[in-house]
């Protein structure tokens, strides 16, 4: 299931890009500094799709950040409505989604699974120079997860001798869905 989420997400991104570029007056490339502090490389593109609207697509992931046993790959698309009638300037409200696959060890517990969520975001974009912006944003939403969860000392695979990869934990959590301080470069 993990590989299928990543493949579908990447195919959706590449299928959307020609249409978004055709409609866009502006395109911005950016990165979230808070993710880099968490040793999670990320890259985003934002496309203006109308007088008050834009679409932001973010890719993120990490492999053993700071030596921790953790792997993460994620996609975060977001639709934004800009209040002042000029996208990529001042305040906005958005609807963000999250698709992620992960395998991490935390406090001697292993969490290996997939997550999908949706939430509302709020933010503000400061113009630093003609093409450089600083953006701060935060959002909250519901995230559904399906995962294998067990103690490091357990031999989880012995519970399923037929070789199936079953999950033993799933549910919903209310979580921050998108937080960031991004630096962006606007391409005309």
Give the low-pLDDT segments.
Answer: 18-24
Largest beta sheet, briefly?
8 strands, antiparallel, barrel
The H/E string reads HEHEEEEEEE
The computed structural class is mainly beta
Give the CA-based shape. elongated
Q: Strand-residue fraction? A: over 45%
Write down the Rg. Answer: 18 Å
State the helix count: 2
Q: Percent helix among the residues?
A: 10-25%
Number of distinct beta strands: 8
On the 0 to 100 scale, the average pLDDT is 84
First-last Cα distance: 38 Å
**Order of strands side by side in the largest beta sheet?**
1-2-3-4-5-6-7-8
Quaternary structure? single chain
Secondary-structure blueprint:
Layout lengths: L1 H22 L3 E6 H5 L4 E7 L4 E11 L6 E13 L7 E17 L2 E19 L4 E20 L17 E19 L1
Antiparallel strand pairs: 1-2, 1-8, 2-3, 3-4, 4-5, 5-6, 6-7, 7-8
How would you sum up this structure, described in words?
- The structure is a single chain.
- With 188 residues, the protein is mainly beta.
- The chain is built from 2 helices and 8 strands, in the order H-E-H-E-E-E-E-E-E-E.
- The protein has helices at residues 2-23, 33-37; strands at 27-32, 42-48, 53-63, 70-82, 90-106, 109-127, 132-151, 169-187.
- Strands 1-2-3-4-5-6-7-8 form an 8-stranded antiparallel beta barrel.
- Mean pLDDT is 84; it is low at 18-24.
């Amino acid at each position: 299931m993990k590989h299928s989420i990543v493949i579908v997400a990447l195919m959706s991104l590449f299928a959307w890009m020609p249409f978004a570029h055709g409609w866009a007056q502006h395109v911005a490339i950016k990165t979230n500094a808070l993710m880099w502090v968490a040793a999670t490389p990320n890259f985003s593109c934002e496309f203006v799709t109308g007088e008050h609207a834009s679409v932001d697509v973010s890719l993120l992931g990490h492999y053993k950040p700071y030596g921790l046993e953790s792997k993460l790959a994620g996609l975060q698309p977001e639709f934004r409505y800009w209040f002042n009638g000029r996208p990529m300037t001042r305040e906005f409200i958005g609807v963000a989604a999250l698709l992620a696959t992960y395998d991490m060890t935390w406090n001697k517990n292993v969490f290996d699974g997939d997550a999908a969520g949706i939430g509302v975001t709020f933010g503000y974009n400061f113009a630093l120079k003609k093409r450089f912006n600083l953006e701060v944003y935060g959002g909250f939403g519901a995230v559904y997860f399906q995962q294998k969860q067990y103690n490091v000392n357990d031999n989880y695979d012995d519970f399923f001798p037929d070789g199936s990869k079953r999950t033993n934990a799933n549910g919903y959590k209310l979580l921050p869905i998108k937080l960031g301080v991004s630096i962006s470069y606007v391409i005309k």
